[in-house]
Structure formats: C-alpha cells, structure tokens
Amino acid sequence: MQYAVEGMHVITVEGIGNARDGLHPVQERLSKAHGSQCGFCTPGFVMSMYSLLRNTRGSPTELQIEECLAGNLCRCTGYRPILDAFKGFAQPSATSYTRETIRSDGGLECANGHIKEAKGESGAMENGKLEASGVQICPTTGQPCSCTKPGPLCATSVKNGVEEGLMSSKEPIFPVELRKHVPASLALPGTTSTWHRPVTMPELLGLKAQHPSAKLVGGNTEVGIEMKFKHADYPVLIAVTHVPELKKMEVEDDGVRVGASCTLTQIYQLLSGLADEIPKYKLSAFEAICGQLRWFAGHQIRNVATLGGNIVTGSPISDLNPVLIASGAVFSIAAESSVDRKVPARAFFLGYRKVDLKPSEVLVDIFIPFTRRQEYVREFKQAHRREDDIAIVTAGMRVWLSDDFVVKEAGISYGGVAAKTVTASKVEQALVGCLWGKEAMKMALDAVKEEVCVPVGAPGGMAEFRNSLAASFLFKFFMRVSYDLEADSPAFKHTFGQDCQSAVEEFDRPPSCGTQYFAEPTSEFDIVGKPERHRSADVQVSGEAQYTDDIPVSGCLHAALVTSSKPHALIVSVDPSDALLVPGVHGYFDHKHVPGNNMWGPILHDEELFATEIVTCVGQVIGVIVGETQAIAQRAARLVSVEYDELPAILSIADAIEAESFFPSYRGQIDCGDVDKAFLDCDHEISGEFECGGQEHFYLEPQTCVVLPQENEELLMYASTQALYHHAETVAETLGIPINKVVCKTKRIGGGFGGKETRSEFLNAVTAVAAWSLRKPVRLCLDRDEDMKITGQRHAFIAKYRVGFNKDGRIIAVDLKCYSNAGNSLDLSPPIMDRCLSHSDCTYRIPNMRARGFLCKMNIPSNTAFRGFGGPQGMLFADMWLDRVALSLGKRPEEIREVNMYCEGELTHFGQPLESCQIRSCWEEVLSRSDYEMRKAKVQEFNSNSRFKKRGIAVTTTKFGIAFTLYLMNQAGALVHVYTDGSVLVTHGGVEMGQGLHTKMCQVAAQALGVPFETVHISETSTDKVANASPSAASQSSDLYGGAVMDACKQIADRLAPYRSQSPDAPFVEIVKKAYADRVDLSAHGFFITPDVTGWGGKRPFNYFCYGAACSEVELDVLTGDWHILRTDIVMDVGNPLNPAIDIGQVEGGFVQGMGWLCLEELVWGDKANAWVRPGHLQTCGPGTYKIPTANDIPIDFRVSLLRNAANPRAVHSSKAVGEPPFYLSASAFFALKDACYSARRAAGLEGWFDLKAPATPERLRLACGRTDVESLKEEL
C-alpha cells in the first residue's frame, strides 16, 4: 500500500478536522444530522463525501451523492440521516420533495429538533424558504426549518456545496512539491514480494519478460483479495499505474481506444461525455458500457480499478466482458520478444479465469467501435443487490439491422452461466438473416434454451433462475430494440400492447427522501425528550473515536485461531511444528494450556473452549498461534497440521428433523385453551410448513479483544462485547482465578446486535489463555470472513402449522411447531425459542393455541442472539399463515389482521394482560398517514396497465415484549460522581454500541440533578466500576440503567436539597462546593430492578409491550426479480421518548436491517441443497458474497412517526424501549413483494396461495412469478 501511494498526497479523516480544533463541514453536517450511531463506518462516509466534493466541479447532484455513498456500508442508521446530512451540499430545489412533506399532517421536525404543526396542503417560496401554514422548508435539506438566521445546516449559509468561510481555512492543500514530482522507476523489495513500478512501456515489457509469472497490479482490487483471503503468493508485483501507453484514452474515427490501466471512473467519464460531440446512433455500445459501470462495484472501487485488470482476470461473472464481446471490442497485446497482436474480445476468454495472454505478454489497450445506424447494444445484469454486488447473470447483446430490418449481425454474450464468459453463437445464428420480429425472437429463445443451460448442482447454484435470466434478458433485449427501432425508423411498427412497455422501462431510482414526526418535550426546561446529538458524534466523524483494536499496547502480541475444517470428525492428530518454525511466532496453545475449565457456555457448559478429541462444526477452535504481528500469526496458523477421521454430519434443519437430532434439555411449549376441541368447531382449516433463513450480524467492527496480564495474577481486558461481566466470568473460570482479578472494559463497540453478547466470550477466553501462558499482552482481531464463519448468526427456522378459522376470518385455533437451527451447542437457543413461541401470536388474539419448540442439534457453529431474539421469526410465521387465511377466504390480509387484532386488556396466549395496548392506535395512524386505501387502488391500476412490472403494498404490525425472560437479569447498577466544579461523571453497566445509550443516560442524569446536559460525561463501561451487570441486550438498557442512574442521582439530589433550598438561585457549582465543605458525599451507587416481572413461565414475563405498524409499497420486475421499495410509512410506539432523534434512528436502522433479513441477505451453507459448497462450510462469508442493504436499497420515500400521547408508566420518564421492536416492521416490505407476486401470478394464469420463503431474494421472487420457461416467454410475444 505504501509503495502504491508514492508521489501522492494522502488525506485521512483525521487530517480534515477534529473535535478540538474544529470539524470540516462534511464532518460537522454528519454529526449534527444524527448520521453516526456506532461510528465505526462513519470515517468512510465522511471521506467518500469529502472526495466527491474535492473532485466535483461545482456542487454535486443528489443522485451523485447517493451513488457515491452506495459503496459504503452501515449496519446501524438505515442510511437516511447520512444521506440527508450530505444532501445539503447538493442544494436541490426546495420543491423536489417538500410539498409531499407538507401534505402530510401531524408534527414536523425542524432543523433544531422542535415541532410545528402543518395543516395546509400547499406552500409557496418566500425569502429562500418554502412557507406552509407557518412551517418554513429549508431548500438545502428539503426539511422543515425554523431558522431565523443562517446556521450550519441552513442553505442560506452554503455556497458551491460548502459553508462559506470554512472550506478555505480547513482544506488540506495539495503539496507544491508533489506538483513538481516526476515519477521514477521503483524496485522495492519486501518480506514476501518485490514491488516494481515501471514508467515506460519497454521497461514494463522487459520486466514481464524477466518475470513471466509476475502479477500486474493496477488498482489492487483483485490481487489484494487474492493475497489476503486466498493466500496467493506473488513474489513479484509490477504496478502498471505510471506507464503512459496504458493510460491513454483516444477518440478515433471509428471508435474509442482506452489504455488497459485506465480506471473505470475515467472510462465512464470519457464515454458518457461523448454525447455532446458525437451523433447518438454511434454511442449505443458506450451507453451499454456506462450502464453496466453504474452498478459495477462501488464508487471507491471504480476510482482505482482498471479495465485491463477486469478483462485479464477472466472472471466468468464479469459485468463488462459480455458487453465488450457483444460490442465487437478488440484487445491490443504486446510483448518484448514478439510482434504486437490484436485479439477480438469474443476469442480472448478460453476457460475458467484463463485468457489468451501468454506469460510474457501485456494487455495494452482496448478498442471499442462506434455503432452504426440501426445497430443497438444493450447491457443486462442481475445480482442479489443492485449496488456493489457480483452478478448472478450478466449479458451484453447487439444487433445490426438493414434498412428493411433484416438482422445483418448479432452479438450475444453471457456471464454467470458457465465457467467463462460465453458467446451464444447459436442464438446469433438464429437471428442473422431473419427479419426482426416475433418469429426471429422465438427462434432465438429456442436457441438460448439449447445453448445456455446451467445444470442443477453447478457452482453458484440457482440453476433454474440463471437459465430463466438468460431467456429474460434476451426477451427484454428484443422488446427494447423493437421500441427503439420504432422511434428511430417510422417504417417499423411493433405490435406490442401498452402493458408490454414495462419490459423495456428501466427503473430510474430518484434520490431518496425522509420525513420524521415526533412530539416536543413537555417543558422547555426538559432535557429528557430533546433530540440531543450522540455524545460521541464529533469524535466519530473525525476518526478520533477509539475502538478496541485502536488501543495502543506496548509489546502486544497477536493471536490467530486454528480452527476445524470439518463439520464432524474425530481429531487424529494436531502438529504445530511447522508453524512454530515461522520467525516471529511465540507459541501454540490449546486445551493442554488451560489452567482452569475448558468447558463453557452461557446457560449450560456444553461447549469446549479448545476442541480436545472431536470437532462438531467447521470453525471450531482447536488452538491459537501467537506471533509478533497479525500477519505472522495468521500465516503460521495455516501451517498447523490437523488430521481427522470424519463422522456423519447433520447440516440442515430438515436433516435434523428426520434424524430427530434435538437438544433433549429443551422442552418449550405454550398452551392456551382447548386446541383439539377448537379445531372441531372451525369453519375452515389450513396446514403446511414455512421457512425463514438466518442472518449474519455484520457488525462493522469485527470481534476483537486485548488481554493484558497484570501483577498479582490480575488481568485487564478490553473487549468489543455487549456483556462485560459475563466475559470476565468466563475468563476467570477458564484460568481458575476469582472474578475480582479480571477487569473487563470497553468505551464503545462498533455494532453488536446480539452477536457480541455470548459468542465473543470464547474468543476472549482463548486469547486470555495465550496471554496468561506467555505473561504478555495478546490481541485478537478476527478478519470478516473468519468472524462470519465461526461466531454464529440469527437462527433459521422451519415452522409446521395447523390453523383453524371461521368464515369471517376470526382465528379459532393454532397448532404450531417451530424448529430452529441451534447449531453445535445450546448457547442462547432456549430463550430465543421461548421468545419465538411467546411472539408467535404477533398482534392477534388466538383463543386456542399450542406452540412447541425444538432446538435442532446440527454440525454448524452455534447460532446466537440477534436483534429480536427469536421474536421476529415467531411473528413472521403468524403473518404467513394469516396471509393464507385471507386468500382462502377471498379477503384482503388487512381485513383479517384487523378482525383478529388485540384490544386493551385482552390476554396473550401465555396469559399476560395487555395494558396500555397501543396496537390499534399505531394501525389506524399508519393507514391514515400512508393513504393506504388510495394507494392500494393506484397499485391495482398500475398493475392492470403493466405486464412485466408489478407493484405491491402491505401493512403489518408488531408487538414486542420488553424484559429479560430470565428473572435475575432484570437488575442494573450505576455509579454517579459529582465533582467540585459542578461536572458529573456517570458510570453504568451498559455498553454503548451505537444505540445512544450513553447519550440518553447523560440526559437522564442531567435532568435528575438539574444541571446542563453538557456537564454530564460518561467515559467507559468497566466491571470494576459496576459489578455483575447484565448484558446490554433485550432492548432493556435504557430502562434498567436509566432507573439505576435516576436512583443514584436522586440520592445526591436529596443530599443537596437543603443547600438548594437555602440558595435557590445559586449556580449548581456553588451548591456543590457548599455541600463538599460540609463533607457531604457527592457520589452515589444507584440500583434498579424491573418491578413485578416474573421471568419466563410466570404470569408477567414482560414488563410491557412495544407496538408499531408499517406500510410499504414496492415495485417488482417480473422478468428478473429485481425490486425497489417505493415508500415506507412507520408509526412506532416508544412512549415518551428519552431522545426522539436517537429513537427515530433506531426505528429506521431496525427497519432496514430487518428488510435485509427478509428481502436480501441469504446465508448459503454447504448442505444437500447446496452440494457445490464444501460440507458444513459457509459460502457467503464476506461482503463479496453476503449482501447487506446499501443506501440504494432503502425506501425511496421513508417516513417515520413516533406515536404521540402514549406515555408508558412502567419505564423511566414514561419512555419505552426501541432497539428491537421496530425490526419486524420490515415484514411490510416482504408482504408487499408477495403482493406484487400475486399480481404477476394472476397475469400468468396462476391463482391461489403460494409459499414464499424468506428472504425474498430475486431468485425466489422471479420463480414465484411463474412462467420462467422459454415457452412461456414465447407466448408473451
């Protein structure tokens, strides 16, 4: 990396601004707009936006901003506040999306967090702001604004995209020395590779002749991955970034020639900029290439990745190579000792990652010809996720038609259907010589069916889907060319109906917008209830926030895990001898080095810390290598030899059910009413099976810990964990020492979502064994793929159901069996199943219900807690069978929901009464705010006029119980110190992981003590400050620690009360000093227990319930399964919010994360269904294959309302929990997609209910729409 940036000016997030000296405008906007939660991803967003501003002439457009940021990932915020923060630099028209905002009634959030009511339905611009019933709309943000003078977020203080007076004083200037720098040839030796950087073509060719096996490096986007994750060994690397011949871009008489080292961004800018200079008919190939580049990787990758690198990699799923083949591109190749040659793109790709390039040869440039009149080139790509995703199938297609519309030439190429990019020569032959029309296309479709046939079990899977895409792309191409030809040539007329135009219309996603509604605090003096910013926002946007792996430790060693490569096997032998010979290795440690207990587990100690005789999953820890650097330790760990004797493995829930492989200690069941008798009295009955997949946590900060041995057999640990005390407890037991000698600390963690509650315990423990043995500090930081493979995910489920109901839709009886893939140990699977069963009623009263749970014992890593903790799975199954009930009765799902929805005071199926039940309030408000009935009618109208694009709309609800179901965990402690200068230090047992817990606790403390919010500080969480703390989980932290902080503050306030009564107008600092002079204790330990709760099995397992409702509208491409969320409206019950800005962030982030689970994120394990994956291995083990939502996946119109007048008497300041409850509202998107599928199926002649498994991937959606075969497409012509 250092070699690659020689001669460049490197600017980091720390270099553009900091919290003490002043933030850069980009940083400041993001901080003030609540765009940073856990903060781990924040520097990346800041620098992406900063880069866009530095490289854009004038102000970027909103679309440019969203496309720029779509390559960045965030797991917390749901992206909306990030996009809103940066759109201020675009200065959009105030009328672009504010009139719709005004049209919505209710409270409106102003830039300063205050509320005004908007009752009007129109607005007018005045003095730069849009006025509507007293509400000013900021033309910068498109949001209501009450600014009376220019401020840091107001458009009137912005010029050319940045605040005046700020950019000039804070902008790093490009060094004058570098402007004069002349790049020189480099030859730099390294420990594993020698880096060469030639600056002339002869020098490059000479090096390639001298080192024929050398790897050429451009943007390092492929080689870096190969070396890091595939452990490729390249002793010689040659950078081609400074060879002028490889950087040329020239427009010639018959086309464009681009150097192989030109970046994809440079090529996009060149080709897209030709529209003003060259006739449009010549640009068809360039438009196709630009169309493909728009979705090629992310903005950051395109800025450095080279076209030549993409070509010579020879990937069978390349986005660009099919388009280059179809376009007739020609590659120029050179070598030192041979004549230069030219190779057509269609002849260049020989096999899997094998191309027509000799070891000594170099790809010099690519020539792309202009298209001719009536010559059309189109690009196609379908992936799991639209932005920055590897294609499932990609294609490039071209035809050239004569004046009488006969096909003179055809070029059809596909990626993702074979081991290489293929040319569909039979399809081409079927078209050439034919009159362009339906008969020609029918022959071409027959040819593609014969020629492009992905066999079942092929690598990548999805055979039926991939085959259907090949035909669908050809069908879309025919339709698109037919429409274009009619526009270009009056003599040609297609015969398609108006409803067929949807096959050619590309979805042009507009910039997203969002609206948030919440109530004002009850008093202007209230601190609680104000939308205060995250207390760490400024240090997070400036990159100063410290995470576990950032902590500097002198002399710290690094650990790397040795893990099982088999799902179930006896360990025959383990030989670390080769690893111990690696220079810099300090030792290998396994179960023999454990001084205490080698067994661990959060409920039962049923899991080995280090495997001894048998491994029960891939990724199980066998040992740990410690070295001087992470790279040394990881390289040595791969050299540890382990021999196995394999045993039969159970790798799917279906296999476990068949083998009756269940954990025998769990027998979860809920019984309500007389189920068997009730079924006899039902008018109707349905039964069947549902399935939902798991989900990777994908916290941005991976599992990390640092263990430092201290004197007197003490240990100090820094851990990225949600459960500090339990980590200290596990480490103490492992080492055989008391817990009081283990101190575990954390300042913040970069996301957790339940994944760092228990599964980080064993990682801390194995690291502690190594540190204990060596008596030296040791650090462990997992790579992303390693983390995903071994630390578990959300439980996948299969549910078998039987539902009885009457003709009016009222549910009478339900018999439910739920099976979860617990994995190879119990972990938290029992309480997760308990919560699934307790939430299997969703928001519906079921008088007779029997719900049973089974934990499948399988040979995969133990699954664990994830936001919702089993509740979303239970609610999903309820909505799935309710959807089937509605269809069987010919009623709309919302009718069935409403007739069965709980009312105040009714009992749940486990016997708890619903107090202050807000579900019907949320339901009625979301129907009103979303204009559901009107939009439902518009959806039906759209679908009647559109054959190949369908829309769907759905409304769903949620009810989530708040409490730990283990009675003893419902307690919390806090420690509050008041110092003599009036400042306050709060410490509590909760962990800040992005949910704003510390910010809320500062607000609670400030209000309780009557001091300004700014005077209260929280430094860290530590087990030596607050002992025996429960995990930060179950959405309980604000309730528990808020209660504890209030208790401590009340003690101090009571002690200060006499002094305040004597001097009621005195500043707080004077009161404190007087009390201190009288030797009054200014510290207090607070304690809180959740009142009345009984734990699981009692009459009140939950303290209270949170409610919510959401309406989502989607658009689905019937031919590909591609989809967009057009709009989502959410009404969420959070009581009286402690901090509405933070709560809205949790609602938005929860919805988007839930949408990922139900609509996007798919875990692919090696089992019978995926025979192409190694047994027991996780195929989707990194961001390259596992896709979480990006900024381009969120609802285009995203509206969130916090329910008003819904005070909760059972929590601090009448608030409610907010972390997990909103997650399941994403089901509205899932069922909207299913609604769209119903419309597509009806158009295809398919009636009745169908099963849609979650997640609703493009594959499942396309297959659900029916008519996937070639014959069906031919019938559409």
UniProtKB/TrEMBL annotation:
[2Fe-2S] cluster binds at C38, C41, C74, C76. GO terms for cellular component: peroxisome. This is xanthine dehydrogenase. Binds 1 Mo-molybdopterin (Mo-MPT) cofactor per subunit. Gene3D superfamilies: 3.30.465.10, [2Fe-2S]-binding domain, Aldehyde oxidase/xanthine dehydrogenase, a/b hammerhead, Aldehyde oxidase/xanthine dehydrogenase, molybdopterin binding domain, CO dehydrogenase flavoprotein, C-terminal domain, Uridine Diphospho-n-acetylenolpyruvylglucosamine Reductase, domain 2. It catalyses: hypoxanthine + NAD(+) + H2O = xanthine + NADH + H(+); xanthine + NAD(+) + H2O = urate + NADH + H(+). Mo-molybdopterin binds at Q722, F753, R867, A1034. Its main location: other. The keyword NAD applies. The keyword Protein biosynthesis does not apply. It is found in: Peroxisome. One of its GO terms (molecular function) is FAD binding. SMART domains: Ald_Xan_dh_C, CO_deh_flav_C. Residues 188-373 form the FAD-binding PCMH-type domain. Its cofactor is [2Fe-2S] cluster; Mo-molybdopterin; FAD. Keywords: 2Fe-2S, FAD, Flavoprotein, Iron, Iron-sulfur, Metal-binding, Molybdenum, NAD, Oxidoreductase, Peroxisome. InterPro entries: 2Fe-2S-bd, 2Fe-2S-bd_dom_sf, Ald_Oxase/Xan_DH_a/b, Ald_Oxase/Xan_DH_a/b_sf, Ald_Oxase/xanthine_DH-like, AldOxase/xan_DH_MoCoBD1, AldOxase/xan_DH_MoCoBD2, AldOxase/xan_DH_Mopterin-bd_sf. Belongs to the xanthine dehydrogenase family. The active site is at E1220 (proton acceptor).
